[in-house]
Design goal:
- The complex is a heterodimer.
- By secondary structure, chain A is of the alpha/beta class.
- Chain A has 14 helices and 11 strands.
- The longest helix of chain A has 18 residues.
- Chain A starts with 21 loop residues before the first helix and ends in a 7-residue tail after the last strand.
- By secondary structure, chain B is of the alpha/beta class.
- In chain B, the strands form 3 sheets. Chain B has a 5-stranded parallel β-sheet. In chain B, strands 6-7-8 form a 3-stranded parallel β-sheet. Chain B has a two-stranded antiparallel ribbon with strand order 1-2.
- In chain B, α6 links the parallel β9 and β10.
- The chains are: A alpha/beta, B alpha/beta.
- The interface between A and B is medium-sized, with 30 and 32 residues.
Amino acid sequence: MIKKRTDPMAYQPGMEMITSDIRDKVLKNVDNYDYLKVSAGDVKQALRKEHLSIEDYGALLSPAATPYLEEMAKKAIIETRKHFGNSIGLFTPLYIANYCENNCVYCGFNCQNKIRRGKLTMAEMEEELKAIAKTGLKEILILTGESRHHSGVNYIGEGIKLAAKYFSTVGIEIYPLNADEYADLKNCGADFVSVYQETYNLSKYEQVHLSGSKRVFPYRFDAQERALLGGMRGVSFGALLGLDDFRKDAFATGLHAAFILQKYPHAEIGFSTPRLRPFINNTANNPNDVHEKQLLQVMLAYRLLMPFAGITISTRERAGFRDHVIGMVATKISAGVRVGVGGHEEKEKGDEQFEISDPRSVREVHQMILKRGLQPVYSDYIRV
Amino acid sequence: MTDQLVIGGHNFNSRFILGSGKFSLEIVKAVVENGGAEMVTLALRRANLGGEENILDYIPNYITLLPNTSGARTAAEAVKIARLAREINCGNFVKVEVIKDSKYLLPDNDETIKATEILAKDGFVVMPYMYPDLNVARDLVSAGAAAVMPLAAPIGSNKGLSTRDFIEILVSEIAVPIIVDAGIGRPSQACEAMEMGVDAVMCNTAVATAKNIPLMARAFGQAIESGRNAYLAGLGRVLTHGEASSPLTGFLED
């Protein structure tokens, strides 16, 4: 018997509903976005502008912009240097648990995937944090699978408190929370929240998030806004490129961030540009039509839309790609990365979320940044 | 003739204040030396005390540090950051920056006044970054500012003296030093600001994004000095149209 799936627009018990028109605005614009209608003239016009309109941004993400990638890059590097100078931020993620209650077909942590599950005890977490701090890093991103049961808000909060002892900047990439829960984690020492919508196409979203709280599209969509209402300083956005129509998803991601900033002008905005990667028991998972050229186009469009936004380049990409995009478009790079649970001090306690492409240590990435004439920045935030 | 810049009772020979946030640290010293700067800003959030790539390890000892409160979104946050800077021996100077606009990074003048008042009472030499508004500048001076730092154009824009007319008003009305900060893109613009009578110029992006950074620092140092000398010398008259060879009013009889 085929199990009837839940309505992805229906909130589950306990999920906070906020009043916001941002989702409607983003989705309406995406509906109207027809990138095949963009001409070379539209692209050239967008490239001449200092502040992009929604249409200009759409033009830069269109196939018509492909021949203008070099010009986009030339413009992007000027903007990046204007706002960030030579600075390249360094950080590393720490997965504290990989239990998950969601069934997302593209993710190694999905609850149907038979992998080794685990979560760090506080003592183990402290050892991991110490080992990471020894590399010189001052910024850390705490991640979990999406399981309120195994890795509840209190557990994450305790982990954040520990992390704040060793790191000046603590970010979180966990399941979406209510505003008061974000406020609690802010009090524990977290200031930056990353939530990726994966795809903004509701029907695709529904097909790939088969069950679990992540299936609720609007609750995830409003996460950044609830994080800001909870007092967080900055929020990051991202679509999982390759899951659906990447041009539309990137278009939606940029607008999502732009509308949030319009409403919360103090918010620090960040972007990530994850592409699908192979994972345990699914080595065929791949980014489909999002090759490096398309990935770069998306990154450049984000930069030109928001010259001041932080853009992170993850170890999902190979070293050669990462090395070339920093300073030009990306402003933050991870190093010494493990994507299983723990693994910095002790053996991993749980399996990886995906396969990484760049295993270099903090020292190696540091040297690479210097070699490219850029400045590694360990601390760029002060918690007051 | 000694022509010194005096801020909060401290004398400086150089009128070039260097912003440091966008450089590779290894060249900070060369930039300072080439530009002849005696004061360098320092974003406290960047100071990685005892850790990797700590900017304090790269700034020469004779330089006066100007810690800034970047990252502060309220007066209260700016005050906390300034006090932290003093705790780690960065001195008594502070550049107050209160910014709650992530897009254009425009300063919040109201919060800046509040922070200035608290910090000035606390014994700091307060140099607030501000949007050039005469009323605000007066309030800042009343609050105890030792100088005011109006922006010439949006930070990092290299657009030059976009707010020229308003800065000129400050120059003629405000008694404390006026230091143009943000937006200066080239030495000629820095020179022009100095010719107008501002007391010093701060820049960062324009130097940091040059091809030859130490050389650009030198160019800025020279331009600022040159503009200052022109101001002191008194600019000559500017002809806006041709002049008649004989006086137009020569026909008048007693």
